[in-house]
């Protein structure tokens, strides 16, 4: 029944399409780029279709190639999950998730010990990247924890927490007299609406425009460093309520004028639909929901 299926060519095509090039596919499959090109040509001949447009330095999927990639990728993923389900339980309890470095270090890692204590049989691998990763193409990733501005309707989604920005200071901090300089700590932030998240907007909302006239701005590209500077007493920081939560829990920082908040993103746990039913992913989602005391359990979004 399946004797004529070009399985090797399909696996090669999937790798080239997912990774965006023949050389990258060759590296993953431990073959030569020429061998990848040969398998692709064989598949195109078998189908009578052009699957890739060859450019000078890269290749791009054609419309038919994109359609085939989605089907082959899904089928290979389903086959991999079927095989994994037959492995001993100790071999299948693994979870690979991706999130930003800031969220991992400032929110997830400090709490992850609780998950390990509750689920010692599940190995969690955390990968960090600030890039938005296509979970449909990178099926080795089980879950992503994201601050989302525009939700992808093709992914399963469990809301975690809304994000806003406010000012935080060490305990006991007092505003310097008007004739003295004022240090304001900032990092690069973005919002869901596109509205600015910066000291100018916060000062306008708080009636503190005079701060801007005497401020010395200390800028950090890393959110963690900005919070460390504020905790060290360098000055107040405009920061995410999500990323500052651990500093608040230990009393290192405290809100200052908590009534002034700049809305931002929505943190969600997302995955490819169906992946949420995998035992390790389900356990992690339940832990996230319970650990945060989330009111809304889950929402499934399908194309």
Structural descriptors:
alpha/beta, eight-stranded mixed sheet, about 20% strand, about 300 residues, 11 helices, two-stranded antiparallel ribbon, Arc Repressor Mutant, subunit A
Number of helices: 11
**Text of the CATH class of the largest domain:** Alpha Beta
What is the N-to-C succession of helices and strands?
HHHEEHHEHEEEEHHEHEHEEHE
Q: How many strand segments?
A: 12
Give me the oligomer status: single chain
Strand content: 15-25%
Question: Could you characterize what this model shows?
Answer:
This protein is of the alpha/beta class and 303 residues long. It has three domains: 7-84, Arc Repressor Mutant, subunit A; 92-160 and 266-300, Periplasmic binding protein-like II (D-Maltodextrin-Binding Protein, domain 2, 3-Layer(aba) Sandwich); 163-264, D-Maltodextrin-Binding Protein, domain 2. Helix content is 40%, strand content 22%. It contains eleven helices and twelve strands. It has helices spanning 7-19, 22-29, 33-47, 63-84, 89-92, 101-118, 199-206, 209-214, 223-231, 245-249, 279-292; strands at residues 52-54, 59-61, 94-99, 123-128, 143-148, 156-169, 182-186, 215-219, 237-240, 254-256, 262-271, 299-300. The strands form three sheets. Strands 3, 4, 5, 6, 9, 10, 11 and 12 form an eight-stranded mixed beta sheet that branches. A two-stranded antiparallel ribbon has the order 1-2. A two-stranded parallel ribbon has the order 7-8. The radius of gyration is 24 Å and the shape is elongated. The model is unreliable at 293-303 (pLDDT under 50).
């Amino acid at each position: 029944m399946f004797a004529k299926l070009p399985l090797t060519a399909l696996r090669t095509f999937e790798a080239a399409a997912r990774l965006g090039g023949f050389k990258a596919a060759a590296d993953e499959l431990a073959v030569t780029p020429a061998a990848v090109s040969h398998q692709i040509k064989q598949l195109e001949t078998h189908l009578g279709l052009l699957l890739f447009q060859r450019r000078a330095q890269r290749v791009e999927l054609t419309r038919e190639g994109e359609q085939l990639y989605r089907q082959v990728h899904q089928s290979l993923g389903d086959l991999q999950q079927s095989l994994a389900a037959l492995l001993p339980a100790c071999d299948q309890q693994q979870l690979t998730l991706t999130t930003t470095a800031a969220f991992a270090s400032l929110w997830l890692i400090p709490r992850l010990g609780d998950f390990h204590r509750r689920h010692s049989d599940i190995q969690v691998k955390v990968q960090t990247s600030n890039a938005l990763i296509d979970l449909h193409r990178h099926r080795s990733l089980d879950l992503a924890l994201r601050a989302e501005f525009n939700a992808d309707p093709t992914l399963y989604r469990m809301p975690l927490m809304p994000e806003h920005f406010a000012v935080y200071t060490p305990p006991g901090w007092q505003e310097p007299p008007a004739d003295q300089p004022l240090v304001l700590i900032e990092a690069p932030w973005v919002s869901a609406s596109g509205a600015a998240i910066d000291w100018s907007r916060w000062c306008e909302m708080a009636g503190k425009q005079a701060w801007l006239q005497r401020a010395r701005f200390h800028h950090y590209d890393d959110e963690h460093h900005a919070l460390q500077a504020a905790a060290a007493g360098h000055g107040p920081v405009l920061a995410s309520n999500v990323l500052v939560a651990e500093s608040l829990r230990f009393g290192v920082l405290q809100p200052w004028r908590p009534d002034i908040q700049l809305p931002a993103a929505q943190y969600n746990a997302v995955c490819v639909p169906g992946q949420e039913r995998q035992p390790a992913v389900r356990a992690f989602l339940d832990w996230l929901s319970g650990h945060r005391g989330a009111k809304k359990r889950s929402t499934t979004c399908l194309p």
